[in-house]
């Protein structure tokens, strides 16, 4: 029973961790209709920022979170319009060209990081790293709780922003129909810059947490891209709330299969679940957009 | 007429040069040429579904891997079958998998189909990792056969056959028209009486078995395979990028993209291969091509760029009142 | 959006430059560098300079280069009284066996190397072996540790490091012997990837021989999260946790264990602990982790080129800023094997094909003592052509430094056992 509770907690927290870097991804897809291959690249960049702030300036990893948001938010703001232009260009398959662009960006980031920062694995120290709390028989790793709380806070914040502000309305309108939003006077070019900036900032913040929970080197990015894709599809592409639910589901499956069936089967079970869900419910479990 | 004659002459010249290549270059360059032919063929296999039918398959490496593993398992103990007998076996195994996987997933559209196929490839990879008879993560050895020319000509024959079939089926037959019709507007194609489900599945299976043949040859050529080297997602990624760079949905685009990217990768690797910087250069090159050559290299030579397809798309979209078009 | 005229001119411009680039690229292979006037030995290094195994790949390259620099500083390799410098050529296998085979073919055919120094990973090594066989070029591997490398009895391949199935189990026995109170139970975690899995199997099989009760054997996928596995093992309360993996998962095992407040009495890993990056990434949390080293700067061996093991470590540290680990040492020792064999053979560069076969036979007869330890290759059995002479040393990180704790005659400090709890 104790192990059962611990496994459930582990699973929910794995879900919370995965959700951190999937939420922004959903926003980009929902609004810009771009599948961003570079999502893992932003995660790794956030991790490196925190590592260097800690190693060079002796700062706690958490202090890197706002810095990551601003820095990568600005970079994302600059990249957003380029991506928008490609996505809406008059080529045969603009959605594919946008995907290829982000794949190129991801490769460029990976090669650049390998060249500039080398290949050693680093870890981001934070005040909560390695700390835990015992609640009865269950051990609660605090850094993961922080990540899960971050995911919930970001999802909640986005919800308020999208559904309670005028600009949020403009974003939702754009998500539904670019043409109609543009006709209503929304500056879509600037909006796409803002959305991609917001996404890159959120994802880099998640990267700081990933560096604290796991570790960071230039080659781990693909793993995050993989999970972001899968969770997003399980949730229904573009659904922010669904991402949270789907991430928790995958986390719990991974934990229970690892503990009770055998850890070598955990990913097999995750991918098989995703595959079956897609066959039964072709638009993800929630079947709706942003 | 004139330009058609010119391209025919060019084609024959290219085939003659390729046939004579073993006499002209040393074994290393022959090996690079073998690799280039393989990638040209793989890119073409991906383009059958991705370019002509408009279905983006992120799991194509699964079929490459199935071919490679079928050949490796059948050639090894205890059966020890001859190599050429294992190619049809690989085709059969792959076709069965492709039908089982394709029938349900081809109902999905756009990104959902793409990621469902990726998930399938991951399931297969994990399966090969976990079960015993595949050698697990440690991989499989094949009996080494070390004749570079044999592999060059085998790969050459497979590539020529792939392009011939593609040309005949997708460029010169009613089947090709059906495939393109469903790409450009699936509901309209269906309304015209095309059995889209069947046409999609046929294309999917053809694309899969083509990749499988190259997988079989690859396994015998390299003599050692493991799950990562034949099922790895980076194999699919490369095919996709090659097709996009070369020109999506065109006959020669994948050949140009496949040969070009592989050879450039190898040249960068030879000259700057002692650092990881060439990865950054490769990434930058992809970004630049997307930004400045959005119709691929083949688009440079096309009389009219593939824009017409989108124009048609948009027109039809307007008719059926679907303002957004494109994704979904 | 782009106007059509702009689009056209840009397209034409890019078409032109793409053509120029392609023409330049095609021209490249035909530009040959002028041959050096004095004959040199040419050595090819195949290793992972990009991709997943980039860290280890660079370690191996550093090791091979250390030997080349040292021997060239002396004027080169000695053959019949003359000295010939060594020229190094590199091929990146992109952490992919097929590219490793491409690299081997290139180094042999294009660069006409006399000898190859082998890849970091066992997978690449296995893919390169047939190429060595085809061209009859000997390859000395300073890194590959999987027992699979030697099972097929590769005629032209020689390994400096004992296969992991021989070392993992032996060091576990040492750990049990010096633990007090004596350890009784063990759980093994290994990442399901090449090398890591074989290390895990080495620990699993060694556990039985060491009289341990195996309470769990878990294979985890490389992309998986470790909390479920660690929680499961924590509930079984084993005395020892043994881990097979590369540096990144090893770091994650320690971090995850700490975040779940689980600490076994001993934590033993294999490769990666001796790499300074491990202790650096984990800071104080690295303390207490045990590892297996085939070589350490404190071992009592020496040779003419590098001097003592300690002197070798100093040379290496001056170059890279880090203490060298055993892979670097074994790679440097690979060069010594070549130097010794070519001296006995007495053939000057460039080697003719039949001389390369003779070189292979000379390497097979190697029986030398180096700063790395004794080197002698097996002539038969499951470890054909592998050097299983070195005795693994059990090490532990204490105060951020790697120290030998067993076996008794090699120990420089006492084993910290059981490990204190995290809080």
Automatic annotation (TrEMBL), chain A:
It comes from the Bacteria. One of its GO terms (molecular function) is transmembrane transporter activity. The chain crosses the membrane at residues 12-32, 37-55, 61-84, 96-119, 139-163, 193-214, 226-253, 265-286. GO terms for cellular component: plasma membrane. It is found in: Cell membrane. It is a multi-pass membrane protein. Its main location: membrane. Belongs to the binding-protein-dependent transport system permease family. LivHM subfamily. This is Branched-chain amino acid ABC transporter permease.
From TrEMBL, chain B:
Keywords: Cell membrane, Membrane, Transmembrane, Transmembrane helix. It is found in: Cell membrane. It is a multi-pass membrane protein. The keyword Transmembrane helix applies. Its main location: membrane. It comes from the Bacteria. The keyword Nucleotide-binding does not apply. GO terms for molecular function: branched-chain amino acid transmembrane transporter activity. One of its GO terms (cellular component) is plasma membrane. PANTHER family: HIGH-AFFINITY BRANCHED-CHAIN AMINO ACID TRANSPORT PROTEIN BRAE, HIGH-AFFINITY BRANCHED-CHAIN AMINO ACID TRANSPORT SYSTEM PERMEASE. This is Branched-chain amino acid ABC transporter permease. The chain crosses the membrane at residues 29-49, 81-103, 110-130, 150-170, 204-222, 242-264, 276-302.
Automatic annotation (TrEMBL), chain C:
Keywords: Amino-acid transport, Signal, Transport. PROSITE patterns: TAT (PS51318). Belongs to the leucine-binding protein family. Pfam families: Peripla_BP_6 (PF13458). This is ABC transporter substrate-binding protein. Residues 41-385 form the Leucine-binding protein domain. SUPFAM superfamilies: Periplasmic binding protein-like I. GO terms for biological process: amino acid transport. It comes from the Bacteria.
